[in-house]
Amino acid sequence: MAAQLTLSVDACPAMSSAQVLTAQSCKGEVIRSCLSYQYETCRRMAVRHITTLLLCVIWGLPEATPDVICDNSNPCPFTGAQDLSVPTEYSSQGTGVLNVTLTVDLTPHTVDWLTIHRRTYNGEIPGPTLRVRPGDKLYIKLNVTLTVDLTPHTVDWLTIHRRTYNGEIPGPTLRVRPGDKLYIKLVNNLRPDNLVRERGHGPISPNITNLHLHGMHVSPKEPHDNVFIEIGPGSSYQYEFHIPDDHPAGTFYYHHHIHGNSHFCVGGGLVGFIIVEDDVTTMPPELSAISCPLNCHKEVQLAVGTNFRYRFLPTDPILSYSNLQKDLGDPSR
């Protein structure tokens, strides 16, 4: 069975604040690297009297102001204009079958003095080249790492700290097809705390986590979708999800599912989408025009709440998001 699993890794978001840096090698070949270099960072560096930004060409940068130095007249002296590495190549080599493992992870890449972190396949940019022939079978085992951590998010003047997957709210979107196998390594980077861990009335530590594929038709046993698994601070767990061949298409979501703290964590950001794709030719034209894989990017309003107040028993004290964060020692700014 040919697995066609892909992961929607948006390494290059809309270029409202991020800039696509374009470097030219002296051979004249254009290499585009989505470094998401912030314009405001460029301004701050110039204000600090750094006379050279060590950037070759800045594509899409707003019209230069007196305190911004951006020279694109001669790209060759730019020492960071390095050729991209030749990707690893995997080939079916005439056997008609190609088995490949792709691991998606956040990996560091250094150009001169600048180190950036990007989500990659097997640590390479670009990822491995897969070489097949018409009629071949391609089997891809996709490994995904989701890291749970406390990350700051700023909206206008307000900075809040939330538990996230890979620093994003919502977490990365995962795309699968019926019959695929999805391997997710869940890493808990949260710190230990002194809140209770016993079951009963009242919340338990939100720094314990696990993973649930909401609405998916997958096994509830380990190492699959067992919602009673507990992954403590500093620990990790390797999940394995087998998507049935007859799984219905649709948009589902994955989220934190520890009983006793799920409201706090899911409402704060530990949630992401998983899309089960189907063959676009099996749907009526009117439906396929607004469906994946040809048209997946629809604006969806997502409310991530933080203002909940509740109690487990009438005699219990009222709980709130902010009070629980204080008990955990989360940063207030």
Automatic annotation (TrEMBL):
Domain Plastocyanin-like: 164-194, 208-279
Coiled coil regions, renumbered to chain: none
Domain of life: Eukaryota
Classification via Gene3D superfamilies: Cupredoxins - blue copper proteins
A Pfam family of this chain: Cu-oxidase_3
One annotated GO molecular function: copper ion binding
Protein name, UniProt field: Plastocyanin-like domain-containing protein
Family: Belongs to the multicopper oxidase family.
Annotated InterPro entries: Cu-oxidase-like_N (IPR011707), Cu-oxidase_fam (IPR045087), Cupredoxin (IPR008972)
Protein species of origin: Branchiostoma floridae
